[in-house]
Amino acid sequence: MPQPSSPPPSQKKSPHPLLPHTPPTSSSSPLPKNWPPSLTYLSALSYTRTLPLDRLTSPRASLSPTDVILSPASPALVAPSPRVRILPIASAVHPAHGQYGLFAAQQLPPDSLIVLYLGVAHWDSESDPGSNYDLSLDRGDEEGGGVSVDASVAGNEARFVNDYRGVRSEGPNAEFRDVWVEVGKGAVGKRIAVFVLGPGKGGKRARGIGKGEEIVVSYGKGFWRERREEVREIGTK
């Protein structure tokens, strides 16, 4: 999972220690404003050498009518995304004070796709235990292992999404959901994206996310349990 804030360039982690990275290619598009120069900006998912390119691919006909499928021309695939901005956190009471967050650059309706979560796709067995940007993409089955996406050294705007705790008392206003991208010849590739939460019961979230608001998700209790354990371990050394 992404951490509550992104580290400044001086604190950037070294490349994934366990993965034979295929050097990701930075987008030919201009970089988003405030993008750390020490990180690689991606406009498409990158893969490690050990992960077959077709591991996340399925026939389009195998999907259900409710699955979200994006064509190559979809506005959601434009990079940099016009829907979001990476901004420094100025509030002294924000958990990520002095670092960065992801903010809406326009009104975002309920249930709308905000931005894909891009990084380096890899087998779960190769995960870097020290990464705070590793997000599960496909759990796998008896025929194959799970796959995750690590945005610690290469990614896009979505890596700056913060957890809602200590930021928004009403709870998260966005969440991660699976999506599919057309890759040609009747096939689609599995991806994960940040979506605005639905309107909720009684339409309490009917306005979506307003322009200028920070986009926040729930990292889950497991994420914070692991981080507390890390702090305890450091304190005992």
TrEMBL record:
SET domain location: 82-220
Gene3D superfamilies with a match to the protein in the record: SET domain
Compositional bias per record (Pro residues), positions renumbered to this chain: 1-10
Start and end residues of each stretch annotated as Disordered: 1-34
Name this protein carries in UniProt: SET domain-containing protein
Organism: Viridothelium virens (Speckled blister lichen)
